[in-house]
Amino acid sequence: MARRLTSPERQRQILNAAVRHFASRGFSGTKTKGIAQECGVTEALLFQHFPNKKALYRRILDTRMGHSDREIFPPLASFRGDDEAFLTFVASGLLARMESEPLFTRLLLYSALERHDLARSFVKQRVRRSVGYLARWLDAGQRAGRLRKMKKTDTTVAARAFLGMAVHHSLLTHLFDHPLSPARSREDLARIWARLFLYGMRTQRP
Q1: In Å, what is the CA distance from 8 to each residue of 12, 68, 101, 115, 137?
Q2: Of these four, 63, 134, 154, 174, which has the most CB atoms within 10 Å of its CB?
Q3: Tens digits of per-residue pLDDT, 30-59?
């Protein structure tokens, strides 16, 4: 006889199934009945944990928003002015994050097409947090004289451009199945992007 799942275990099971459904069908096309069937439970039992589809969707986004970003965005003082090592660490961590959650990336893309308010809010928060972090690093480098002076608005553009290299590569590789040939390691790619970015940003080129 199979062991009965605890309430937290059942919730995790439902959430994992829901991510797969939202990633393949979008919010509008996903039915709670289908999620319940995949979990081997009744729809009524699913509703005991999540009262409706929107609550289920919100929990998925809240869980992802609660993930620590320290493996991507360390304290700014950690690299002691080694800009290449810093940017390599950030890009490599971002690639690792996106590679670890391909279904969630598909979920967000579906949500963008559906213009779902919850997902759009999530993306704005995550982008704001990521870009803001990198912009602070750029500001510090400019004050120290290592990086070219820029307008505040241009600093935001530069931060988005650097993060965009990793995001673009990940989408091409894992969503469109168009990997680089020959293949490159995550660290090699991150280092190339860091050097490319710094070539245009440094006040003095090596």
Answers
A1: 6, 21, 21, 30, 39
A2: 134
A3: 999 999 999 999 999 999 999 999 999 999
CATH superfamily of 7-64: Homeodomain-like (1.10.10.60)
Cα separation of 128 and 115, whole Å?
18
pLDDT of residue 1: 52
Q: Which two tokens stand for residue 145?
A: 């004289």
Question: What residue segments make up the domains of the chain, in order of their start?
Answer: 7-64, 67-201
CATH 2.60.40 fits 67-201, yes or no: no
> So what's the pLDDT on residue 162?
97
Distance from C-alpha of 158 to C-alpha of 132, rounded to nearest angstrom: 11
Quick: pLDDT tens for 155-199.
999 999 999 999 999 999 988 999 998 989 999 999 999 999 999
Token pair 């999530």 in the structure block, residue? 122
pTM: 0.88
- Count how many Cα atoms sit within 13 Å of the Cα of residue 33 in the half-sphere of its side chain: 1
Structure tokens at 206: 């090596």
Alpha helix ranges (H) inside the chain? 7-29, 32-39, 43-49, 53-65, 83-100, 102-114, 117-143, 152-174, 186-201
Residue 130 confidence class, pLDDT cut points 50, 70, 90:
very high
pLDDT of residue 22: 95
3-state SS assignment for residue 137: helix
Place of tokens 């994992």: 16
d(CA 134, CA 191): 16
